[in-house]
């Protein structure tokens, strides 16, 4: 698989994860972003030992988009802090089935990750293990299609919880297009969706060594996004 590298230096690699590819090795033994990037570094630099490389954040397997990986423990610590304190800014584009009540808004929930079934649920804030979750959204377009009403939104992720965007919009009965895990419109289908209508389109952070503010963008292609004229936005 040809990797789309947006930036690389001694401290970080910024790359676009394709839909259907896991961030890290999993039980399916599929090629992952980490394994492919490590192999790339190994071959490019003629390494004799396995290179250090860790993802600072994760994208679900059916979600594509921009990711940053640290190539040193020091860079990992710095970027992880930025991710945790909110100074690393993450933006997504999403296609929802249904229509939201407002053109823009903030979704605030408490989420609980059920590790047994690997699903995230919106729960009461007093639920043991529940984590506060927040995102902001702006509606870019609403379309009437053969599949019903679709809403195109820009999302800024304020907190980074497991399946957060998917779970929070599903709770509002506006699930992500193609999401067989959270969207009832797709749960009964036997079709396997390698991608869903969710894409990490913009990532901002300060370089862990130089302090330079860096911005990376990547527009989604194919799937639900194929019906949009993204040049308009």
From TrEMBL:
Q: Which InterPro entries match?
A: PsdUridine_synth_cat_dom_sf, PsdUridine_synth_RsuA/RluA, RluA_PseudoU_synthase
Annotated keywords: Isomerase
Q: Is Isomerase given among the entry's keywords?
A: yes
Q: Does the keyword Flavoprotein apply?
A: no
This enzyme catalyses: a uridine in RNA = a pseudouridine in RNA
Residues covered by the Pseudouridine synthase RsuA/RluA-like domain: 13-171
Q: Which GO terms describe its molecular function?
A: isomerase activity
Under CDD domains, the record lists:
PseudoU_synth_RluA_like
Q: Name one Pfam family in it.
A: PseudoU_synth_2
Lineage, highest ranks first: Bacteria, Bacillati, Bacillota, Clostridia, Lachnospirales
Name-wise, this protein is: RNA pseudouridylate synthase
């Amino acid at each position: 698989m040809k990797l789309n590298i947006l930036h690389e230096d001694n401290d970080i690699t910024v790359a676009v994860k394709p839909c259907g590819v896991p961030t890290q090795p999993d039980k399916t033994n599929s090629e992952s972003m980490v394994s492919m990037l490590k192999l790339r570094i190994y071959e490019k630099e003629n390494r004799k030992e396995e290179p250090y490389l860790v993802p600072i954040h994760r994208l679900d397997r059916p979600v594509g988009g921009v990711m940053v990986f640290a190539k040193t423990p020091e860079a990992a610590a710095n970027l992880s802090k930025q991710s945790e304190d909110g100074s690393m800014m993450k933006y997504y584009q999403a296609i929802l089935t249904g229509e939201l009540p407002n053109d823009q808004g903030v979704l605030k929930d408490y989420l609980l990750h059920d590790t047994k079934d690997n699903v995230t649920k919106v729960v009461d804030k007093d639920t043991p293990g529940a984590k506060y979750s927040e995102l902001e959204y702006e509606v870019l377009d609403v379309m009437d299609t053969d599949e019903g009403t679709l809403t195109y939104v820009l999302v800024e992720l304020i907190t980074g919880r497991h399946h957060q965007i998917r779970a929070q919009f599903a709770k509002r009965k506006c699930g992500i297009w193609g999401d067989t895990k959270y969207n009832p419109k797709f749960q009964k289908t036997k079709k396997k969706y390698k991608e869903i209508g969710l894409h990490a389109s913009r990532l901002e952070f300060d370089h862990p060594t130089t302090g330079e503010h860096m911005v990376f963008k990547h527009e989604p292609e194919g799937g639900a996004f194929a019906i949009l004229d993204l040049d308009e936005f």
